[in-house]
Specification:
Layout (H helix, E strand, L loop, with lengths): L2 H22 L3 H18 L6 H22 L15 H19 L5 H9 L6 H8 L3 H23 L7
Helix pairs in contact: 1-2, 1-3, 2-3, 4-7, 5-7
């Protein structure tokens, strides 16, 4: 996209998106992003439009209509609580079981991975500097070590979260 085209269209796009956003039930910035994307696709396929201002107005209105249609078709889930504090005993028991499985897997990690992941899961939320000092390693090696340890943890947890038994 040429900088001149962006500079020329930005104020118009901002104004058009602001005008259409309320009626379409979306944010003006979201409309702007969608139109910029359409313009990039157009430039890649056909080059710049003959009348960029007219194209832009049409594109904003088209994106606003698409957003209205999408919003009208989307329905929220009725059976899932929005607030996790209102969970029943079954959900609490399942959450506790998942936490126990995670803690058991963390204890089975090799080398200092167990201590590293425990530090990452700590409710005190220590900084990388504090964790590195506690483990006696450099702060720069903490990220790669963390990645390796989390990979080990994923492999340990994979059998526990796999679907059990035949389906269908």
């Amino acid at each position: 996209m040429t900088p001149d085209l962006v500079t020329a269209l930005r104020p118009l796009l901002t104004a058009e998106a602001s005008a259409e956003a309320h009626a379409s039930g979306t944010e003006p910035g979201d409309l702007e992003q969608a139109v910029w994307l359409r313009l990039l696709e157009l430039l890649d396929a056909q080059g710049p439009p003959r009348d960029p201002q007219r194209w832009l107005r049409s594109a904003v209105r088209s994106e606003a209509r698409r957003t209205r249609r999408t919003t009208r078709l989307e329905r929220p889930y009725d059976n899932e609580p929005a607030d996790a504090a209102d969970r029943g005993p079954e959900a609490l028991a399942l959450t506790a079981a998942r936490h126990r499985a995670l803690r058991d897997a963390v204890r089975r990690l090799p080398g200092r991975c167990s201590r590293l992941v425990e530090a990452l899961l700590s409710p005190q939320d220590p900084t990388y500097r504090e964790i590195a000092g506690e483990l006696g390693i450099s702060q720069g090696s903490l990220g790669p070590e963390r990645s390796r340890c989390l990979g080990c943890l994923r492999r340990l947890l994979a059998p526990e979260v796999a679907v059990g038994g035949p389906r269908g």
